[in-house]
Specification:
- This protein is of the alpha/beta class.
- The protein has a single domain, classed as Ribonuclease Z/Hydroxyacylglutathione hydrolase-like (Metallo-beta-lactamase, Chain A), CATH 3.60.15.
- The protein is built from 12 helices and 15 strands.
- It has helices at residues 34-43, 61-64, 67-74, 82-87, 97-104, 156-162, 176-181, 186-195, 199-205, 228-238, 278-283, 285-288, and strands at residues 2-9, 16-21, 24-28, 51-55, 78-80, 105-107, 114-116, 119-125, 134-140, 143-148, 167-171, 215-219, 248-251, 261-264, 268-271.
- The chain has an 8-stranded mixed β-sheet. A 7-stranded mixed β-sheet has the order 7-8-9-10-11-12-13.
- Strand 3, helix 1 (34-43) and strand 4 (51-55) form a beta-alpha-beta unit.
- The longest helix is centred in the last third of the chain and has 11 residues, at 228-238.
- It is globular and about 50 Å long.
Amino acid sequence: MELKFQAFASGSNGNSGILSTPEGALLVEAGISRKKLFDLMEKAKISQDDLQGILISHSHTDHCRGLPIINDTLNLPIISSKGTKEGFRRYEFYDLRWKQVSEKSLILNPNSPLELGGFQIHSVPTVHDALGANAFFIEYNDIGISVITDTGRILPEHFEAINKSKITLLEMNHDIPALYRSNRSKWLKNRIRSTHLDNSQTVDVLNQINTENQALLFGHLSGECNSPIHVQSELLKWGEEMEEFPWNCFICPRHSPGPLLTLSGGDKLSSSEASLDLKAIKESEEINKPSEDLLSYFS
């Protein structure tokens, strides 16, 4: 048995990923173009015929903008919450195909999983400003995969999902100092702080994750208010006394695919890219250079 997972894009410009098994595949989010999606699927050697459904966490366009044209081609079940299904209708003014997208969407009940092929799809609540926003915990043959982004707080349900998962994609949206020194409006800064996880919040999660988790993917990085250097710096603080990370850790790029992860036999993980090397991070001059005090960003 072989399971594959890859984030095709992760950020405010677009989100999408693929979960593939011998029994079929799921598209998780559709915030990229049809052409980009099909090109990336071809590179990952995943056939369009393998797709069994499309999961959409909420109706913000960076998670669903590609749906109308992707649906035209694939005509697959679209799985979302009731609020997300209703949220699709607000885009009808721009494209009438959104009406069909909404009408054919299957509602994911927060209290019970939806079974699709060999998958069990669970809704995981999030703290976000879109009606019906949720994250996903997906089970296949007792293997769990979690995709948790766009939430202002970590909830008990998140820990439960992560600790049942072999692979987790977890939001690491912004660096607080970078956010407050940005030119964004006060309203937008407050909105981001209340609806997205900052780097330190995500790193705090690591203290409660068990070592059964094979891989952690850090994604949905802000283009203006975060960077891989910021993320690695925060991870370094957490792992300062360690020799290596307890898990295979990866940072998902905003505009290009992340590593293709493969689980064989449910336990053996391989990746198309090397995971983060804690020793290399400790030795990095760029990461270890002095930074300004946080309070300077509020003045």
